[in-house]
Amino acid sequence: MKSKRFYYFLIPIIIICLWQFVSYFKFASPLFVPQPLDVLINLLNSMSSGTMLNDIGHTLYRVLVGFGIAVVVGVPLGLLMGYSSKIYNALEFTVEFFRGIPTTALFPLFLLIFGIGDQAKFAVTAWGAGLVILINSMYGVHLGKELRIRVAKTMKIKSFQLFSKVIFPEALPQIFSGFRVAISLSLVLVIVTEMFIGTDAGLGKRIIDAQLVYQTSTMYAAIIMTGIIGFLLNKITMFFENRIVHWKGK
Amino acid sequence: MITVHSLTKEFKKLSSTTRVLAGVNIEVGKSEFVTVFGPNGSGKTTLLNIIAGIENPDSGEVLIHGKNPKDAHVGFVFQNYNESLFPWLTVFENIVFPLRIAKIDSKKQNEIGEHLLNKVGLLHSKDKYVYELSGGQRQLVSICRSFASNPDVLIMDEPFSALDYSTTRKMELELLDIWEEKKITTLFVSHDIDEAIFLADKVIVLSPRPASVKKIFEVKLPRPRTLDMLSSPEFTELRNSILNTFEYEK
Fold first, then answer.
1. What are the distances in angstroms from CA A9 to CA A2, A184, A226, A238?
2. How does pLDDT run across A20-67, given as a tens digit for each residue?
3. What residues contact A181, with CB distance under 8 A and at least 6 apart?
4. Cβ–Cβ gap A157/B76 under 8 Å
5. Which of B74, B75, B129 sits opposite A246 (nearest CB)?
6. B56-95 residues touching A, CB cutoff 8 A
7. A222's torsion region: left (phi>0), alpha (psi -120 to 50) or beta?
8. In 10 A of CB B126, how many CB atoms?
9. Which residues of B touch A152 (CB under 8 A)?
10. Pairing verdict, β B202-206 and B213-218
11. Neighbours of A249 (CB within 10 A)
């Protein structure tokens, strides 16, 4: 148990030591690499003053809405694509085409359609995360065991029941793998949209504002907070995954 | 009652044609337990798939209680219990699955499910998940499931071949114990000669591929069967005469 903890924190400690080392001996200008302690103090101050909490709240709200839309659209569409070769054929080209295009490159298009408000941010996030969820849901159906479907068919199961009671649960482990990738991607996309589309509050805005005026401590404090949020979002998704897909790997 | 009449089946590949079934005739009377014994690769699985209505024969006919197999109610037990059970459901939910999709009321489901579980000594594992059970117990669950919906006929495809010797003998006793209750017409495929004799009223010996019926042996051992019958003179005699039908090539 002790050694497990040790390995868990080993690399972060090495990184912080290296950082301290570089900033202490001024291998890089303090303007670009602030002292770790300064960043920590900045992080604690901005948390206690509540300004960062406000930004976190806005960012999390956008992540959850974007991710939520991605789930609601991506899962059913992915399952249908996996199940029906007609739907697969109809969508395969489009999906594979957009899959290779960075969502961030499509900003102008999203801005044109949704304006510069929150809707554009939701749309960008939902698009990027939705593609990941859709593709994983589709694979979930393809990777399912043929025999279970055959078993259900020997019981004269109806198509709808086959879908809801066999194919869907069979695809769940893969769907959750998609969720875990998509939740991290959602955070990335929200931060990037906040940085480049513009907003009045959000961690991305905090990062870009600090960057522009060389407040590097504030910038790194916001970046570290983003990392912590990403870590926690992934842990929360894993928690639900272990609860819901309890049979995974067994 | 199952009637299989001069069934033929070929598999065509690009360069060659493999004859799998060369005019198979089988008759399983009502409430009879018939085993099909044949070497590996003799086309037993193809035969079962055709009888279950999953595959179509090239020529010949299968009737189950005078009906086309696609319209008959066939219970199936597969060799691979891990891929034929539903890991997201509990033991009990797996067993009543065919009743649930047929919208049988839940009181009746409870009655049937608990009765079967009690019969095989798994009532205390009712709410466990199947991955928490041993291999033998898992296959018992899938056997219970096949009996739950009270099908016209039962087809079992080497259900115990992944289990060790003593577990297999135990499973055979459990199977016969449930079977004695309703004596559902059963066709059981096996490559274990002791199993084929021990379970059956009639052993059908198949020739190597392309399969046809080589000989049919009546098993006159009384029911209920007990393990000491395995060493009785009648058993040994029958075993020898079945083995004598095979010419061993050097």
1. 11, 21, 18, 20
2. 998 888 888 878 888 888 899 999 998 888 889 999 999 999 999 999
3. A132, A136
4. no
5. B129
6. 73-76, 78, 80, 83-84, 86-88
7. alpha
8. 15
9. 101
10. antiparallel
11. 6
